[in-house]
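User: My notes are a mess, but here's the protein and HJL's SMILES. Can you give me a structure?
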Amino acid sequence: MKPYVILNAAMTLDGKIVTAKNSSNISGEEDLKRVHELRKNVDAIMVGIGTVLADDPRLTVHKVDANPEDNPVRVVVDSKCRTPIAARITNKDAKTIIAAANEFKYDFLVSDRCNVFKQRGVEFFFSGDTRVDLTALMDYLASQGIETLMLEGGATLNFAMIKEGLIDEIRICIAPKVVGGVNAKTLFDGEGFDTMDEGVNLELTDSFSLGKDLILTYKVLK
Ligand SMILES: NC(=O)c1ccc[n+]([C@@H]2O[C@H](COP(=O)([O-])OP(=O)(O)OC[C@H]3O[C@@H](n4cnc5c(N)ncnc54)[C@H](O)[C@@H]3O)[C@@H](O)[C@H]2O)c1
Ligand SMILES: Nc1nc(=O)c(N)c(NC[C@H](O)[C@H](O)[C@H](O)COP(=O)(O)O)[nH]1
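Assistant: No problem, the inputs look usable. Here's the predicted complex:
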């Protein structure tokens, strides 16, 4: 059992989702509104710990009209429980689940940091030995009533999710900009596939201009 997973991201024409110096204002205003409408319409939103550490995102609906109950459940894939106490995703604006790996479970559960998170109502899910088992996580989220999940990056988690066959749909904003840089993260990093034959095939289902940006929607072929 798993939620329907939509990967949403913004990239430059050269496929970069952030520069090597961590500059990432890519989407135009219209696209950010589209993203927040999507946030409003899903049950959960998930990011990797790399994104939390780089951006300190809120992962709430705050760029379009919304009520507090419109906020999706926030999920952080954080094997080693590195989420900082000050991270905005641990505030009370929405429910938050930190998904971590079993190796770090016992040290974390007795830590002061864990107590602070618990007082804020943050929940934990442990799976995998040293790295979160993403399939087990999807199964758990589905068991919690999460039917739709928006994956909002970053580069490492995106690749792990698509490699595991867990992404159903991809919505990409392509900004009319080029930044280059061998160290700038792309839409899918990770270890990559060795051959084109192993690559994941997609079917383009929609494309339209939005302000200066281009939006492409793909179905992931399984
Ligand atoms: N432009 C966009 O749409 C967009 C969206 C989100 C993030 N970003 C950018 O992406 C960057 C972060 O990307 P990133 O690749 O460094 O980090 P990430 O957010 O992809 O998090 C990766 C981390 O998740 C953890 N993890 C736990 N279990 C895992 C598993 N099974 N598979 C893979 N990872 C697992 C690991 O610690 C790993 O290092 C930030 O700079 C952020 O600004 C851009
Ligand atoms: N769609 C999109 N366009 C961008 O230009 C960009 N940089 C992101 N990046 C997504 C990433 O997850 C950010 O961390 C959150 O968008 C932070 O913002 P919030 O406080 O959660 O609204 N996403």
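The longest strand covers residues 4-12.
User: Great, I'll file this with my notes.
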